[in-house]
Structures are given as structure tokens and as C-alpha cells.
Known about the structure:
The complex is a heterodimer of chains A (231) and B (438).
Chain A: E1 6-16, E2 22-33, E3 38-42, H1 49-56, E4 64-69, E5 72-73, H2 79-89, E6 90-93, H3 105-112, H4 122-131, H5 147-158, E7 165-169, H6 177-194, E8 197-202, H7 205-208, E9 213-216, H8 217-220, H9 222-225
Parallel strand pairs in A: 3-8, 3-9, 6-7, 7-8
Antiparallel strand pairs in A: 1-2, 1-4, 4-5
Chain B: H1 3-13, H2 15-47, E1 56-59, H3 64-73, E2 82-83, H4 84-88, E3 108-120, E4 123-128, H5 131-135, E5 146-149, E6 159-162, H6 164-170, E7 177-178, E8 181-182, E9 193-199, E10 209-213, H7 214-218, E11 255-256, E12 258-263, H8 271-284, E13 289-291, H9 293-333, H10 335-347, H11 352-393, H12 404-430, H13 434-437
Parallel strand pairs in B: 4-10, 6-9
Antiparallel strand pairs in B: 1-12, 1-13, 2-11, 3-4, 3-8, 3-12, 5-9, 6-10, 7-9
Amino acid sequence: MTAPVIELRNVQKAFVAPGGERVPVLDIDAFTLGVGEQCALEGQSGSGKSTLLHVISGIMRPDAGSVCVGGHDISRFDEARRDRVRADTLGLVFQQFNLLPGFTALENVLVAMSFGSARPDRKRAADLLGAVGLTHRLDHKPAELSIGQQQRVAVARALANQPRAVLADEPTASIDAAHQQQVIDLLRETCRAEGAALLVVTHAPEVAGQFPRRLKLEDFNRAARGGPRAT
Amino acid sequence: MTLVGIAWRNIRQRLLTSGLTALSLALGVALVVATLVTGRLVNQAFESGSGLGYNMIVGAKGSPLQLVLNSVYFISRPIENIPWAFYQQFLPAAERADGLDGTYAASTKTAVPICMGDYYRSYRVVGTNAAFFDRLTRGDGRPFAFATGKNFRDDDFFGGVLGAAVAANLGLAVGDEFAPTHGADDGAVHDPFIVRGILARTDTPIDRGVFVNMEGFYLQDGHAKPLPEGEAAAPEAALATPAAGHVPLPFNQREVTAILLETASLPGLPAELTAMGLRTAINEGRDGQAALPVAEIRQLLDLFVKPLELLLLLVTALVVLVSAIGILVSMVGSSLERSRDVAIMRALGARRSHVLTTVLIEAILLAVGGGLAGWVLGHALVGAIGPWITTNAGVTASLFSAAPVAEALLVPFLVVLAIVAALLPAIAAYRTDVAKWL
């Protein structure tokens, strides 16, 4: 059996409130994302969706439990090694696209290739942008692109390092309904074409409903339910 | 993309701020370069006197530095004149009317008299004899060369030679006449002299000199020393063949401003000891003083020029420091804007060391860019004021004048300064909370 791309076991994460009170955000017994699998993770605002993505991507370290990404238990890694695993194994798509404003579309993709093991590959970057229909916009800066085009650049950037999985945080939250379907289709198609698993975090049921696997964060994150942790 | 490429993109993204920061740095560096180069030129100007073909100046008692500045560099005022009879003490029997060696003749190889006090359109007029150009050298040990014409002869009482800058600035050519004025530009106008030769450029104060035959000089109004009551004019008079229609001034009515001496070696004594002995003998006498130009200028440089230069350099270094603080302010000012970009790069896998290095590279690029632009600007500045420096200081100042050692250290110094200035924003970038900014 092929090992999952992402596997969480007994993960806990809490923040300390300004008053010193410890506020649990994640309390997850198990979560996995298989190779090439596409999954939507639903959750209400404040349910810990973004924190979960930060823990999976190694931006945050869990207080307890293990987080395996591409076979590496990154919860044991120091920050620099987590950064390396993130660069090599994961692609991230953000709600606000988060393109670098001073860089062209091509450079935004090339930047993502600058921190991992592989060398920046201008041809692959151009090919990826071509695959999302932006061949004619390679040298345009984000401000010169439409919202839809910016999101396409963000998708191409997420796939820059041939990641094992793409994590998308509310990718449709800041775009109109007409573009939402395009973005979801684009993400699913390109990830399938690149062989990458896809985990989309969303609060929109109509988005989650399009995925073969649909989870509600509240169902497996005890901290989101506010209930006591099972022993 | 390399980190350098990312840093360069960041600079271009904040083009106005980056441009202004680099510009302020460039102006500071230009000022430093111009100061360094002109400082070196000033030193060169003074040090160029070390190969003039004479090693001692004899003049009236007073400040030896004033004697040197006036005689060699044509700046400051003459102290006073010394008697002709004293000058004759340096001449051998063959050059004296009485046929006897002068007191100091044995210690003297060459003695060239100079008489000062007149001007020609703000340039100093120096009365001297043909030996000035025939036996002395131009400062670097090479003999004088004439661009056009030739030296005046001793029997050509109204012959003159012009320095290169004088001829160029006043548009005078061989055969032209010029009439010096007495004591100042607006003084009484003397008889005209004829330009016999124009010197090739020497890049020394000689370029700013107007040299005339001192026999003609003596014949001008106010140049003859009044005789004491009851004393008759000396009958022997001229050194050379009298010029047609002109009677040389009698010896006892003559004075000289200074004597440029090349000392000889007394038998059995090294040249230095002979010079020291001669200097002591002259200084112990009542007629005048002997000054060593090289020693006086060295003292001047050590006491005044170098401290001034250092002060100027300190001021300009402060300007550069302020410019470096400009880098800090500019980068701190853009750190909010930068935080989001840093968070994005971190999310894409950039390590903290990557973002720290990128910020430092950004500062280094600004420092190197601003520094190099300032370096070029500084040389352009020297090049622009070069003709003025050349005319007034008698040294060549051009785009290519340089202070190589100090200039070579300038850009590395700026890079270090920029790194120090950028440390604060770099550390801020290093500490950026990724989760907060995404």
C-alpha cells in the first residue's frame, strides 16, 4: 500500500490568549491525504482551517503529535528543514493569491523554484503558465492581470516544484461566483495533470460538494467542537 | 531566481525610494572622492617642489615658510629684499666684477636670483636671469622645455618667458608685448617686455609665472634702491653686455628678493653636510636666512594641510554615514510593505536565512550602485573644476586624477556600512511571523 502524502496523528495545537489563557485550536486524532487524492475540508470561520494548513505545511509546529509530509515527520524537524520540505513537497494557494507585486507572472513562478532542491527552470515556469492559459502574460505584473489571471498564476506557482500535494486555503473566497468554478476546475485539473494531491480548505459547501472526498473539520477536530479530548 | 535577482527585483519594486537612497549615497561618495582627489593634488602641488634643481632658498630674515611659499609657489608676499652684495657672496670669481670668489661660492653650485613685486594681469612677475631656465629644472628633475620660442638671453633686457597657463589664459604668443604693473594689478604700468618663449606645461606653479629679464626689471620705476646720501652709483654695473640703448642699473642700487641655490659638496664633505654648514652660516649672519624648501613644505603639510584634509575627510565621511543611515531609514520604512512579501517567500519555502540575506544583498546593491555612481560623479566633479585647479594650483586635475588607495577602499567600506545599516531591517525580515501576514 502506498504511504499517504500527508498523515497527521494525535496533533494538538493551542494558542495563548493575551490574558494568558491557553486556547486549543487543533486536536486531531488522525488525518490522511493519499497520493493524488483530492479532498475538500469544510469548516466555519475560526474552526482552525488555516492553522491546520500552517501545521501541515510546517509554517507552525504542533504542540504534540506527528505530521508526516511526503514521508518526513516534520514535527520533529527544525524550522529550516521544515522550510525545505515545504519547498520540495508542497504547493500553496492562498485566499488573496499572495503574488509578489514587483515580480512578473513568470518571476512569481520562478521565485517558488528558488528555495527547494531543484534549480529554477524558466522553461517549466513558462510551460506551467502556458498550461493555465497565460502564455501571453508571462511578463505582466500582478497589477496588470485580472483577478482570474492572478489566481491562475498562483496555481501555476503552487505547482512549480512538482509538489506531492497542493494546499489551497479558501481559494475562492475573494473572487466572484463566475470565477469560483473556473478556479476549482483549474486546481483540480492541473493537480491531476501534475499528479499532485489536492487539499482545499473552504467554508463554501458548493465548493466542497465538488470533491470526491469531503470532510468537515468539526467532525475530526475536537478543538473546533469545543469538546473534551478523548482519552 | 537567485537571491541577487530577488533583491534586485525588490529594489526595482521600490524604485523611487531606492533611487533616492542611492542618489543620496552617490552625492556623499562624490564629495568624498572629490575631497580625496583634490587633497592628493594639493599634496602633489607642494611635493612637486622637491625636484626643482635647487635645494635651498636664501632670502630676507623672517618666516622661512613665507620665503618658500613666495619663491617656489608664487603665493604669499615677499618678506623683504636682500642686498645685491649678499647675492654676490654666492658667485664664483668668474661671475663677479672684482674677480674674487664670494664667501659662499665654494659651497654653491648654482645661484639664481629672483626679484618679485610686479604683476601682469594678476599673475606674478618674476625678474631673473637666463640661468633660471637653463640650469634649474621643472620640479620633477627634467629640464624646462619650450612649447614655442626660447629662453630670453641675459643681454636681452626686455625679453620675457611665460608659463603655459599664463600664455593660454591671456592668449599671448611669442613676439607679443606685455607691460607689468608695479606692486599690484592697478599699480603703475611699467615698460613693455616681449615674449621670447612660452614654456611647455609643467603642472607646477611655474605655469602661472611671468618671467622677465631682471636687467629690464631693475630699470623700471621704483625698482632701483635709493642711494644713501653722498654715495655715488657704482661704476662697474652690468653683468652682461648692455643692450642697445639701455644702461644697466648700478650694482649698489640693486636688491634681490631671493636666491635659489643648488649647493655643492665641499671637498671631503658629503653634499648634505655642506648644505647644513652653509645654512647655519647664512642663518647666523645678519644679511638673510636660508630655508630648505622640501623641509618647509613637509612641515606645512604635516602641520596644516594634512589636518585640514583630515577634517574635510571627516566631514565628508559623516555625509556618507548620513547616506548610510538613509539606507537604514529607507529599508525600515519599507519593512511593513516587505513583511508581506517576506511572508509569501517564507510560505514558498524560503528559509529565514534566505530573507535575511536578500535584505542584506539589497543594501549591498544600493551601496555598490550608489557608491560607483558617486565615484564617477566625484571624478566628473574634479574633471569639471580641473581647469580651474590647473590654473590656480599649477597641477593637472582631470577626470582621471585619482587617489587610488583611498578610492579602492571606499566601496568596500560602503558595503560594510550598508550591511551594518541594513542589519536592523534584515533582522526584522528574519523575524517576520509568516502566519500573521498570510
